[in-house]
Amino acid sequence: MSLNIFWFLPTHGDGKYLGTTEGARAVDHGYLTQIAQAADRLGFGGVLIPTGRSCEDSWLVAASLIPVTERLKFLVALRPGIISPTVAARQAATLDRLSNGRALFNLVTGGDPDELAGDGLHLNHQERYEASVEFTRIWRKVLEGEVVDYDGKHIQVKGAKLLYPPIQQPRPPLYFGGSSEAAQDLAAEQVELYLTWGEPPAAVAEKIAQVREKAAAQGREVRFGIRLHVIVRETNDEAWTAADKLISHLDDDTIARAQASLARFDSVGQQRMAALHGGKRDKLEVAPNLWAGVGLVRGGAGTALVGDGPTVAARVKEYAALGIDTFIFSGYPHLEESYRVAELLFPHLDVQRPEQAQTGGYVSPFGEMVANDILPKSVAQS
Q1: Coil vs helix vs strand at 368
Q2: The 3-state secondary structure of 223-273, one letter per residue
Q3: Which residues in the chain come in under a pLDDT of 50?
Q4: CA distance 62 to 105
Q5: Residue 2 gets which letter from DSSP?
């Protein structure tokens, strides 16, 4: 099975180390362009653009990067309860048309009550999923060309319609991740691809089985994806050294404050991420080559695959054997790590690459030449 490999745009910040300003980088449009163009040229199928008050707006970032990329797809966030589903459908169709069919959408219900309240959303966890189901039903039908009347508990529309359709038919695919029972029910009914964060394979297999069974009960099939960080190097020792270096500036107080902040989330997925490490750095390898160090201070995806190319590829194939066909990777810093992943990991996987542009570039059979017109002696004498 060919795998879809995506990269990540760090619109919330980037750097060499976690939890410190040392080695941090200013994230501006130029830097995001560098990462997007690297991902585009290296053969990543798309980029995930995060959402939330700590991030630049994902829709505006995607729109700004359309003209500087060629094949890269943009996975942007839909926020139920914060925007009208009809307006969101119009925006989605526009982004799809302007990008010539390169738009993908990620349904994000949110898990931080404080942030949601700041955006005017005051629903509890169960109510948010109720509203998300209503939002998605309307959004899908409007994008598919229907005129929609809907009288729900949270959302009511009358005569909702779209005049300018998307390029992708019947509409762009919908991605979604959530670990609660309500989230799995939504995925089974509504989405094309269910995403999980990088839990150990046994836990991921259990979630996949649950969603697959729920979808089958509705006569549907759902694809599966996983969100992971990657630390890949030429040797396993180098990779584990790089993992240790990534958190080398973290002290116990920083970890404790980060975990206290994340504890207010009512996201089941975030709770499962936190349970992998328990806020402690002494047992971070939670499955073979699966390292939970990122989650000590980062919300959301908190695990990384660590190792050399063949080792990380073996772990990727274990997840693929569970039914996962889409992998959304990231690494710090994101520009350099995109090259490492493409150069050290891609050769060991069956990667589904977008059609490559003809760049006219080449790789010298002798590597970098020390001077113009100078060949190695063995070649000059042959």
Answers
A1: coil
A2: EEEEEEEEEEECCHHHHHHHHHHHCCCCCHHHHHHHHHHHCCCCCHHHHHH
A3: 357-359, 379-380, 382
A4: 11
A5: P
* pLDDT of amino acid 359: 46
Closest CA to 136 of 112, 111, 154, 159: 154
CA atoms within 13 A on the CB side of 65: 34
Kindly state which CATH superfamily the domain 4-357 is placed in. Luciferase-like domain (3.20.20.30)
Please list the residues that pair with 232 across neighbouring strands.
Answer: 307
Helix, strand and coil in the chain, % to nearest 5: 40, 20, 40
Do residues 103 and 74 touch, judged by C-beta distance below 8 A? yes
Tokens 């390029």, located at residue: 167
Secondary element (H or E) of residue 130: helix 125-143
The secondary element (H helix, E strand) that includes residue 286 is strand 285-287
185 backbone φψ class: left, alpha, beta (φ>0; ψ -120 to 50): alpha
**Residues forming a β-bridge with 104:** 75
> What's the gap between Cα 329 and its chain centre?
7
Residue 216: C-alpha distances to residues 133, 186, 188 (Å): 18, 13, 8
Q: What is the pLDDT of residue 357?
A: 43
Under 8 Å between Cβ of 376 and 366 = yes
What is the model's pLDDT at position 112?
A: 83
Query: What is the amino acid identity at position 59?
Result: W
Q: Report the distance separating Cα 172 and Cα 191, nearest Å.
A: 11
Per-residue model confidence (pLDDT) at position 372: 53
d(CA 112, CA 261): 10
Q: What are the residue ranges spanned by the domains of the chain? A: 4-357
Q: Tokens 């996987």: give the residue.
A: 349
Please state, in angstroms and as integers, the Cα–Cα distance from residue 358 to each residue in 158, 309, 351, 355, 361, following that order. 49, 27, 19, 10, 8
Cβ-based neighbours of 347, under 8 Å, separated by 6 or more? 309
Distance from C-alpha of 40 to C-alpha of 372, rounded to nearest angstrom: 31
The whole-angstrom separation of Cα 14 and Cα 233 is: 19
d(CA 293, CA 151): 46
Burial of 375 (0-12, 13-18, 19+ CB in 10 A): exposed
